[in-house]
Structure to design on (394 residues):
């Protein structure tokens, strides 16, 4: 099996240089479910070439006719632990890593176990829209504590969180780096949240799946490295499927600490057997052999953020946008404009651009939309130009 990246690593721009005709031939969600004249900028799939080592790993499995159940995850656990140590100075005992179908499945089982009689989970909208789906599957209810000052990136409402904890809620579902705002919380902010969780004997489930895509120069702090209080209260969820763009190959990672929560009945051997074998192979290859590819992608997203910052005032004046610190998602706020309907509905109808509706990220997002920047610079400019052609609304 090939275990090293190609010596001539493409630039980020080259990785995303894929014609529309090729992308419209994909059967995955982003391009296959929109009409032929629609530019999709919605679901969090990237328009990118797979990393060579991932491509080769999957090709090797095909050559071996190797498509059975998962055997072992030792290689994956070691690869992720090494990546976490090198990138985030996070020393993980591989024995505290378990493999799951995906982050959603792990989160759902943890929420169901720890929500207790209250049956509620604190979330901080606008937040990843699938969190609401996760909770429905878990048969728990959201306790919403909206982020404050979203125009500057979004901050914890610690008083509101404490009110929920004091009322009996015992689970906090955290998103860091944040989707859809792209916010990377500081160690100090996370430490304050950890102290609150410890005070009320709550469990923090930290969704960290966008962590590999934190921009250069931005300090990222995994939950389990924040403090002893964080270690006592938290479980961290990771994947490679988002950062390396193979969401269809299911594989999620849960990391616990020696002193933290973990349901007795959640057997890592069983969760491994439930996972996707090719997802495990691809995830190991990603963390072990695809770091240069990832770095090129991160640089591309920073350039996309700068491009979008320049484009918006010219094409969509009045729309608020706070540049993210991670990943490829942009939160556009239309609340100070004359647009009176859901922005995603308006731009799909008038500009033939598909965005994610802000209301799906919580009621506080009604006048907003999420735009996917995980594409080429040329296509991003086409998307914003098309939106600008029908702006302002008449």
């Amino acid at each position: 099996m090939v275990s090293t990246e190609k010596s001539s690593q493409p630039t980020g721009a080259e990785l995303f240089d894929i014609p529309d005709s090729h992308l419209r031939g994909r059967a995955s969600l982003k391009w296959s479910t929109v009409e032929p004249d629609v530019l999709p900028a919605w679901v969090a799939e990237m328009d990118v070439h797979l990393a060579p080592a991932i491509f080769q790993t999957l090709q090797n499995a095909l050559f071996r006719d190797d498509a059975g159940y998962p055997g072992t995850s030792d290689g994956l656990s070691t690869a992720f632990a090494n990546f976490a140590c090198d990138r985030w100075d996070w020393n993980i005992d591989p024995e505290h890593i378990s493999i799951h179908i995906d982050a959603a499945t792990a989160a759902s089982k943890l929420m169901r176990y720890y929500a207790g009689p209250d049956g509620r989970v604190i979330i901080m909208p606008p937040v990843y829209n699938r969190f609401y789906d996760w909770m429905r599957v878990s048969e728990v209810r959201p306790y919403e504590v909206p982020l404050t000052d979203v125009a500057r990136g979004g901050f914890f409402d610690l008083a509101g969180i404490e009110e929920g904890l004091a009322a009996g809620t015992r689970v906090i579902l955290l998103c860091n780096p944040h989707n859809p705002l792209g916010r990377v919380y500081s160690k100090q902010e996370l430490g304050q949240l950890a102290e609150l969780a410890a005070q009320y004997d709550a469990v923090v489930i930290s969704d960290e799946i966008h962590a590999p895509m934190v921009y250069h120069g931005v300090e990222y702090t995994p939950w389990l490295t924040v403090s002893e209080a964080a270690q006592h209260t938290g479980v961290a969820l990771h994947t490679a499927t988002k950062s390396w763009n193979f969401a269809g190959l299911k594989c999620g990672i849960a990391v616990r600490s020696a002193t933290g929560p973990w349901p007795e009945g959640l057997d890592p051997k069983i969760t491994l057997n439930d996972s996707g074998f090719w997802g495990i192979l691809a995830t190991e290859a990603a963390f072990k052999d695809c770091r240069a590819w990832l770095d090129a992608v991160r640089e591309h997203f920073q350039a996309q953020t700068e491009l979008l910052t320049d484009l918006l005032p010219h094409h969509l004046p009045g729309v608020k946008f706070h540049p993210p610190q991670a990943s490829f998602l942009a939160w556009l706020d239309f609340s100070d404009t004359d647009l009176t309907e859901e922005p995603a509905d308006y731009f799909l109808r008038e500009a033939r651009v598909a965005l994610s509706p802000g209301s799906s990220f919580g009621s506080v997002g009604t006048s907003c939309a999420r735009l996917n920047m995980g594409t080429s610079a040329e296509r991003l400019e086409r998307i914003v130009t098309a939106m600008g052609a029908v702006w302002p609304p008449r």
